[in-house]
Amino acid sequence: MNKKAERLKKAPVRVAEVAPELQHRVPPGQTLTDRFPILHEGEVPEYDMAAWTLRIFGEVEQEREFTFDQLMALPQTKQVNDIHCVTRWSKLDTEWEGVRIVDLLSSLGVKSEAQYVMIYADQDYEANLPLADLIRDDVMLAHSYDGEPLTPKHGYPLRLIVPHLYFWKSTKWIRAIEFMKEDRPGFWERNGFHNYADPFREQRFSGDALDIPEDEWVHKEFD
């Protein structure tokens, strides 16, 4: 799997046309779909929710662990977002419900030295973000999609939603957030993918911006 970026770069690309009225919402090189493709590395984890926690640590005044019930007791928000996967699919008007990061952080005492975060998830996955991107109003810890609890394959019980970046930054099965003084690359960022991942700038890879195939996702499992 560590050679995935190189394999995707070398494959041919066949991107479908986007209707003119939607072009401002669809990044270059993307194909619209009504499907919700399922892509991840490793096995889908199973949880004992009585033991599940979300850990907050690093450059904060006090490390904390939240149970799922404690997160559900926080203010809940519904939002609709367009999402964009590096494998060239985009899905418009997706509906999520969860806890906005800005509502979670109001009680955490994040230190001024914190400039970046690392998101940790099962299975041994991590993704990095600038703190400024984590605290946007539309970034959330989502527990529901389209009015229903997340399915295990889409990140149950909790996933991060960062709609303005490629969807690998929207980490499934999130278990911890580390606040950091300095940046360091996450899993895919260490394996050939772009460190920031802006879809409208086609920041797919850390090297040359070469082609990625349309059919990387078409033949995957989907909802």
What report would you give on this structure?
The protein has 223 residues and is an alpha+beta fold. The protein is 11% helix and 28% strand. It has 5 helices and 11 strands; from the N terminus they run H-E-E-E-H-E-E-H-E-E-H-E-E-E-E-H. It has helices at 4-10, 68-72, 101-105, 131-134, 215-218, and strands at residues 31-32, 53-58, 64-67, 77-84, 89-100, 116-121, 125-130, 140-145, 148-149, 159-161, 174-180. Strands 1, 4, 5, 8, 9 and 10 form a 6-stranded mixed sheet that branches. Strands 3-2-11-6-7 form a 5-stranded mixed sheet. The protein starts with a helix and ends in a 5-residue tail after the last helix. Mean pLDDT is 88; it is low at 10-14.
Topology:
Elements: H1 4-10, E1 31-32, E2 53-58, E3 64-67, H2 68-72, E4 77-84, E5 89-100, H3 101-105, E6 116-121, E7 125-130, H4 131-134, E8 140-145, E9 148-149, E10 159-161, E11 174-180, H5 215-218
Parallel strand pairs: 1-5, 2-11
Antiparallel strand pairs: 2-3, 4-5, 5-8, 6-7, 6-11, 8-9, 8-10
